[in-house]
Amino acid sequence: MSITTETPNLAEEITLKLQLVSFVVNGVSFELSEELIQKRAPNSMLAHEARLAQFYDVDKNAYIFDQPADVFEILVYFISTGLLSRPNNINNLKVYSLLSFFEMDETVINTFKKMEHLVFEINWEKTEWFVQFEKVFVLNYAIQLTNI
Q1: Is pLDDT at 3 greater than 80 in this prediction?
Q2: Domain membership flag for residue 134
Q3: DSSP-derived pairing of the beta strands 56-57 and 28-33
Q4: Packing angle between helix 92-101 and helix 106-116, nearest 10 degrees?
Q5: Stretch 126-146: mean pLDDT, rounded?
Q6: 82 in Cβ contact with 108 (< 8 Å)
Q7: What are the beta bridge partners of residue 31?
Q8: Number of domains making up the chain
Q9: Is pLDDT at 96 greater than 90 in this prediction?
Q10: Residue 90 pLDDT > 50, yes or no?
């Protein structure tokens, strides 16, 4: 009596899980797992072939970007680990710009803004202070016009 078991083809299983997407950023090559991109940045440009298509280079079989490679490493680290952090030697506005360029989720961008204590945009038209300032400014301007 012999016992046989069917073993799955491990190499094939690993290949399916590790379909890599290649990027060349300012001359530096990076590879990211398609699965991780979909998991950590599902709404970003990186997760959508149609939005990435304009950056694809057939000869290099990679997406080419003219962005700072050292800043892109932060995005690679985030997609690989789920942790968003910035080394001290990289300007926070460059990271913010890169996150915006790659259309990362607002939650990721807002988390980064909070981490870095970046000022959020203020809609001055809806603040009470602006409404009062505008009334006084318009009134003073009208008085000046009548005195001319």
Answers
A1: no
A2: no
A3: unpaired
A4: 180
A5: 65
A6: no
A7: 22
A8: 1
A9: yes
A10: yes
Q: What distance in Å separates the CA atoms of residue 5 and residue 105, rounded to the nearest whole number? A: 46
C-alpha span between 124 and 140 (Å, rounded): 20
Amino acid identity of 89?
N
Asked if residue 147 is part of any domain, the answer here is: no
The DSSP-derived string for 6-71 is PPP-HHHHHHHHT-EEEEEETTEEEEEEHHHHHHH-TTSGGG-HHHHGGGEETTTTEEEE-S-HHH
**How many residues in total does the chain contain?**
148
| pLDDT exceeds 90 at position 2 | no
Q: Which domain holds residue 108?
A: 15-116
37 belongs to a structural domain: yes
Strand order in the sheet with 20-25: 28-33, 20-25, 62-65, 56-57
Give pLDDT tens digits for 24-55.
999 999 999 999 999 999 999 999 999 999 99
